[in-house]
Design goal:
Layout (H helix, E strand, L loop, with lengths): L1 H7 L15 H4 L6 E8 L7 H10 L2 H12 L8 E10 L6 E9 L3 H10 L5 E3 L2 E5 L6 E6 L2 E5 L1 H11 L10 H10 L4 E5 L1 H12 L6 H6 L5 E7 L4 E8 L3 H21 L2 H8 L1 E6 L2 E8 L1 H8 L2 H7 L2
Antiparallel strand pairs: 1-2, 1-8, 2-3, 3-7, 4-5, 5-6, 6-7, 8-9, 9-10, 10-12, 11-12
Helix pairs in contact: 1-8, 1-13, 11-12
Length: 313
């Protein structure tokens, strides 16, 4: 369903043949209170025009800034990047959301550090860690090892290093997020959202239906969600919302079906065709959504006013 893809996708889709799994070193540097995490296999990222067009439309500014910083820094000049993760998280008991990136690949760390030294780049030292500015991007980077680096604002990088060094808790202690990951991390693109992230996303996706009394009744029962996307053979999107009980799952399913019906009545022929390719069901305390389309069908959908309005939500 196009609205769900626009509402849930922090980083645009990519075509895949391999799974985008995070290493143990990467997982150990992710803060505990993850609101949303998107992980992609970056190696074949640019093979699909449809995927790249979707990515350009739905990637929010904070993630564009992170990816642009990585590109402009020259750290990926030799196409060493294999997996890329973007994490939105909360820290210090606040509801404020911060963003940090983790990149995996075979990086020429010694060459990079030698170049930093040659250019007299001054590192910020945190315990045994060294944090380097990423050129003029305003971002910073620290190498966890030769295959993993963490990047983002200086504050976000420091928080990730605090997590890795055991100063603060990591995602590994968040049972709900880890459980969601086990459902999707064998896929080439996947994302997990916690309770707050799921509630926010579903309210955006439902639009006006998200303001009705039924939504308020089940909102607090939405405890997690996760999705996968694949562009290898057309476009495929699968998402599950965990509610914990059948009543809540059925109620959200009804609201979502009502939103689909409204869009069918008011949308273009391309909108209606896309929504016809969407299936929504619920069982055992879980809402499931599946969408599939050919590249040509999805390319037409990207150009419709309905998709544009959903992206702006």
């Amino acid at each position: 369903m196009p609205g769900l893809m626009a509402g849930t996708l922090l980083l645009g889709g990519v075509p895949f043949a391999l799974a985008a799994q995070l290493s143990s070193d990467a997982r150990a540097a992710i803060p505990r209170d993850v609101q949303q995490m998107v992980v992609i296999d970056y190696r074949i990222m640019q093979n699909s025009p449809t995927a790249m067009e979707l990515r350009g439309q739905v990637m929010p500014p904070e993630l564009k800034q992170l990816e642009d910083a990585l590109r402009k820094s020259g750290l990926n000049d030799n196409n060493d990047l294999e997996q890329l993760a973007f994490i939105l998280y909360r820290s210090g008991g606040s509801d404020d959301v911060h963003t940090v990136g983790i990149a995996q690949g075979q990086f020429p760390v010694e060459d990079v550090l030698a170049n930093f030294k040659k250019q007299k780049v001054k590192a910020t030292v945190l315990r045994t860690n060294k944090i380097y500015p990423m050129g003029k991007t305003g971002m910073s980077v620290s190498f966890l090892d030769e295959s993993t680096m963490v990047f983002g604002s200086l504050g976000a990088v420091k928080e990730a290093l605090d997590v890795r060094d055991g100063v603060t808790q990591s995602m590994l202690t968040n049972a709900q997020v880890m459980d969601s990951m086990r459902s999707v991390d064998s896929e080439p693109l996947w994302s997990v959202l916690d309770e707050k992230g799921t509630q926010t996303m579903m309210k955006q996706v439902l639009g006006e239906a998200g303001s009705v009394a039924d939504f308020d009744t089940v909102k607090k029962r939405m405890i997690a969600s996760y999705y996968t996307m694949n562009f290898q053979h057309g476009v495929r999107f699968d998402m599950s919302v965990v509610t914990g009980d059948s009543f809540a799952a059925a109620t959200v399913s009804s609201l979502l079906n009502a939103a689909v019906l409204y869009k069918k009545m008011s949308g273009s022929d391309s909108d209606k065709a896309a929504l016809d390719d969407t299936s929504i069901s619920s069982s055992s305390g879980k809402l499931d959504v599946h969408f599939a389309a050919t590249d040509a069908q999805f390319d037409s959908l990207l150009k419709t006013p309905m998709f544009a309005s959903m992206v702006k939500q």
